């Protein structure tokens, strides 16, 4: 039995992916894996018993990746699982930024008496808005969310300009050729009536939109942050608003200064919060965890290489080790000393970490224990697991 510990609200459809004959959920003090959403794992200690952490969602800045990697804990996310939800909320906010319905609705509900329609016609011009058609929007980050926002804005008749110097081949293919790419962030900021940012939070992206970038924006531009707190320098935006620059700042990440400001609209980290996205993310996270725990295969990891090898032999040995020369040689020498024949093998690395998967015929539990001990004796080996193939 393996135990999965959850943090935050995880959709029941995701938890149902764990068969009860193989898994328990939240039953052990030493779980094999964690399934989380926004839980701050920088402040939540987890032991080396944790083989993997799956984040149902995109952003992984809530997880100490360097610490997890050196402990041999594989971290996964669920790319794209909530991208449509974020896209739809960004569209909602673009429309709300253009049509003052948030003020108009309470006004309309206060009207009374026999002449509601007369009062309506007399007062409605206070709530005249503008249209998105023909306005320009700069989309920073053209991944799962940004590429969808760019397409939807273009479908609404907006002039879209994108910026993503690190775009993946997959997302580049998805993006229409009609959407021009800015050479630099400054080029995008100079021409955009709306600027929306969809990049991950990393040290490099901290204050990607800082004082200089806010100053480079159009006088009446609207800035949206549905990425992460810290990617936009909120203080720089507040200073700009105080100086009469920018029409509106819309953020999914409130602070005391933001929530009390008249030219700021805050949503409570709602971008990925729809019933559909929560189910998508939880199911995807659970399936990714099961794949790793049961077969050792790694997909959608943010700190380990992708490794997929069909599990056909009776037994699989997986090793997490430092990415240094001659590891495979040292590992296979130990196996040869036990006279073990290798059926299939794969070795992949990512930065400082490497992962080796070796398929072989069955060996006894005793021999597995001996081998594990001996392999862990190699100083650069971090974790050793034997997995039994249930179908062999
Ligand atoms: N508000 C929410 O609830 C919510 C929901 C989903 C995602 N997010 C946030 O949005 C981020 C993006 O999500 P995604 O699913 O699109 O991720 P993604 O990985 O598919 O896309 C991110 C894109 O940003 C690009 N990028 C990175 N740094 C950049 C930079 N400096 N300039 C321009 N482009 C840059 C990458 O090349 C990539 O294409 C997540 O990391 C997460 O923090 C928030
Ligand atoms: O779990 C959530 O509700 C938010 C997820 C979102 O911020 C993400 O990064 O995917």
UniProtKB/TrEMBL annotation:
PROSITE patterns: ACT (PS51671), D_2_HYDROXYACID_DH_1 (PS00065), D_2_HYDROXYACID_DH_2 (PS00670)
Protein name: D-3-phosphoglycerate dehydrogenase
Principal EC category: oxidoreductase
Organism whose genome encodes this protein: Ligilactobacillus agilis DSM 20509
The EC number(s) this enzyme carries: 1.1.1.399, 1.1.1.95
Matches recorded under Gene3D superfamilies: 3.30.70.260, NAD(P)-binding Rossmann-like Domain
Pathway in which the depicted protein is active: Amino-acid biosynthesis; L-serine biosynthesis; L-serine from 3-phospho-D-glycerate: step 1/3
Limits of the ACT domain: 316-389
Function: Catalyzes the reversible oxidation of 3-phospho-D-glycerate to 3-phosphonooxypyruvate, the first step of the phosphorylated L-serine biosynthesis pathway. Also catalyzes the reversible oxidation of 2-hydroxyglutarate to 2-oxoglutarate.
UniProt KW Heme keyword: no
Keyword annotations of the record: NAD, Oxidoreductase
């Amino acid at each position: 039995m393996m135990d999965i510990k959850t943090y935050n609200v995880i959709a029941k459809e995701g938890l149902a992916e764990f068969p009860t004959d193989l898994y328990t959920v939240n039953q052990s003090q030493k779980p094999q894996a964690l399934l989380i959403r926004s839980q701050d794992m920088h402040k939540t200690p987890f032991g080396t018993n944790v083989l993997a952490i799956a984040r149902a969602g995109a952003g992984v800045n809530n997880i100490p990746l360097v610490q997890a990697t050196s402990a041999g804990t594989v971290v996964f996310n669920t790319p794209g699982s909530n991208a449509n939800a974020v896209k739809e909320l960004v569209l909602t906010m673009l429309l709300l930024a253009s049509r003052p319905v948030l003020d108009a609705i309470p006004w309309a509900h206060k009207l009374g008496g026999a002449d509601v329609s007369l009062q309506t016609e007399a007062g409605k011009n206070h709530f005249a808005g503008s249209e998105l058609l023909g306005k320009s929007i700069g989309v920073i980050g053209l991944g799962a969310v940004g590429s969808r926002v760019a397409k939807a804005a273009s479908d609404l008749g907006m002039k879209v300009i994108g910026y993503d110097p690190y775009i993946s081949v997959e997302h580049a293919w998805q993006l229409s050729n009609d959407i021009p790419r800015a050479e630099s962030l400054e080029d995008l900021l100079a021409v955009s009536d709306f600027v929306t940012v969809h990049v991950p939070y990393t040290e490099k992206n901290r204050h990607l939109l800082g004082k200089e970038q806010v100053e480079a924006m159009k006088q009446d531009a609207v800035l949206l942050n549905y990425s992460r707190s810290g990617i936009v320098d909120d203080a720089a935006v507040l200073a700009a608003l105080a100086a009469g620059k920018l029409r509106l700042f819309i953020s999914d990440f409130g602070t005391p200064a933001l929530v009390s400001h008249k030219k700021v609209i805050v949503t409570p980290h709602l971008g990925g919060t729809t019933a559909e996205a929560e189910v998508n993310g939880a199911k995807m996270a659970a399936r990714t965890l099961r794949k790793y725990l049961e077969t050792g295969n790694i997909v959608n990891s943010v700190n380990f290489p992708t490794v997929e090898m069909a599990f056909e032999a009776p037994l699989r040995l997986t090793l997490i080790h430092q990415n240094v020369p001659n590891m495979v040689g040292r590992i296979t020498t130990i196996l040869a000393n036990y006279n073990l024949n290798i059926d299939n093998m794969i070795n992949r690395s990512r930065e400082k970490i490497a992962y080796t998967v070796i398929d072989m015929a069955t060996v006894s539990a005793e021999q597995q224990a001996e081998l594990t001990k001996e392999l862990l004796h190699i100083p650069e080996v971090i974790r050793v697991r034997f997995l039994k193939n249930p179908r062999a």
